[in-house]
Write a structure and sequence with these properties.
Layout: E1 2-10, H1 12-20, H2 34-39, E2 41-49, H3 56-74, E3 81-89, H4 94-107, E4 112-114, H5 119-131, E5 135-138, E6 153-155, H6 160-175, E7 179-185, H7 189-204, E8 208-209, E9 213-215, H8 223-232, E10 236-240, H9 246-255, E11 262-264, H10 269-275, E12 283-286, H11 297-308, H12 314-333, H13 338-346, E13 351-353, E14 356-360, E15 366-367, E16 371-376, E17 379-382
Parallel strand pairs: 2-3, 2-4, 4-5, 5-6, 7-8, 7-9, 7-10, 10-11
Antiparallel strand pairs: 1-3, 12-16, 13-14, 14-15, 16-17
Length: 384
């Protein structure tokens, strides 16, 4: 389903400098004359989100992050580069993402695409971008191997191997776990990839992992799996799941009286609120907090809160950052050509974002600081 198209006239370089300096962007209203319109180059950028379907709540949060970045860009000075943003609903499924990518590439004639969000959808859609030599940048897809599809595809998250190795090093040193249980969604690419990576890192560090327990996307009853895990008496439990399933897992573990640390992938404020007291003590590996002292972050949190009446979460943050990262590449490319934008994106190093210093590695995976966090008094705080 195609949503509203946005046409934005941007002074990208000016805006990026302002954000990097942690300045809030002020609206500048300037009329567009026929003369400037004739000289303006326009780039169409597609955005593929799960606006309906199982992970639609996540998609709506991402849309807010995109919308704020777009609004800031829209209020910047007029330049000779115009960006036309076109939203498409990928429904969070491989089929939906493929349909959205094909429409954006073949009908809308976009030069670049932001999305999809889930790893399963990204695995299906990235080959279409690569085949048509269209830049695609996923803000959230974290499964291994996605950027190996080709040189036109990128993603903000680092590889699961890096994130998990860093997280286990930080948590195992303090918690001292030697025997662990895992629970994962075997119908979801990211969750299965993460569990596989977890078990490889456990083996490399001499940590015993019991036989994994599994469930499937959309399940709501996890009591059988959690009961079996409790009987094993592990030192910690690692959970890999999509956002909708996380609160239920935490709540049911709490009801069963499970007290060992639960370490769960990419836990956000939204899931913590839904889980209530059951989320207390849960640990997660994540890359961003509202309180981070990173370039532009305080302004981002303030502007987002004013626009939407609540603080942003991690999904909004990475979506917001992805717009500025792509805008930087377009600026540096000095061209509307997709190949030039691809090369400029690949060359991004130590770029100031709300996530901190951001770079792409040789494969097109994002490189920036990851951190371990724990839920204390209902909010995420540094795990120390």
């Amino acid at each position: 389903m195609k949503l509203k198209s946005f046409v934005f006239i941007v002074a990208i370089a000016t805006l990026i400098v302002g954000v990097s300096a942690c300045e809030r962007v002020s609206p500048i209203v300037q009329p567009t004359t026929p003369d400037t319109q004739d000289k303006r180059q326009e780039i169409s950028v597609g955005i593929v989100l799960p606006l309906t379907g199982h992970v639609a709540p996540t998609g709506q949060l991402m849309k807010r992050g995109f919308a704020l970045a777009i609004d800031e860009i829209n209020t910047a000075d007029v330049s000779k580069v115009g960006l036309k943003f076109i939203f498409e609903d990928g429904m969070g499924t491989p089929e939906g993402a493929v349909k959205a990518f094909n429409k954006l590439i073949h009908t809308e004639k976009v030069t670049a695409i932001l999305g999809p969000s889930t790893s399963s959808a990204t695995q299906a859609a990235f080959p279409i971008a690569q085949e048509n030599e269209i830049v695609a940048l996923s803000p959230t897809a974290g499964a291994s191997g996605l950027t190996e599809i080709g040189d036109f595809v990128f993603r903000l998250p680092g590889t699961t191997q890096v994130a998990i190795a860093t997280g286990i090093k930080a948590t195992q040193a303090k918690l001292g776990y030697q025997q662990v249980a895992t629970l994962y969604d075997d119908a979801d690419l990211f969750s299965t990839d993460q569990d596989r990576t977890l078990r490889a890192v456990f083996a490399a560090n001499g940590i015993e992992a019991f036989t994994p327990e599994t469930f499937q996307t959309g399940d709501t009853d996890f009591l059988s799996q959690l009961t079996r895990i409790k009987a094993l008496n592990p030192d910690a439990i690692f959970v890999s799941a999509l956002p909708p399933e996380k609160p239920g897992i935490l709540i049911q573990a709490h009801r069963l009286g499970i007290t060992v640390p639960i370490i769960i992938s990419s836990l956000t404020d939204l899931e913590i609120e839904a889980a209530g007291p059951a989320a207390e003590g849960a640990i997660t590996f994540i890359s961003w907090l509202t309180t981070d002292d990173t370039p532009g972050n305080h302004a981002f949190v303030q502007n987002y809160s004013e626009m939407f009446g609540e603080e942003p979460n991690g999904f909004a943050a990475v979506s917001y950052a992805s717009v500025y990262i792509l805008a930087a590449a377009i600026t540096n490319a000095h061209s509307t050509d997709s190949t030039a934008i691809r090369d400029a994106l690949a060359d991004i190093r130590d770029f100031d974002t709300i996530l901190g210093k951001f770079s792409f590695n040789a494969n097109g995976d994002g490189v920036y600081d990851q951190k371990a966090l724990i839920v204390k008094d209902g909010v995420l705080q540094p795990f120390e």
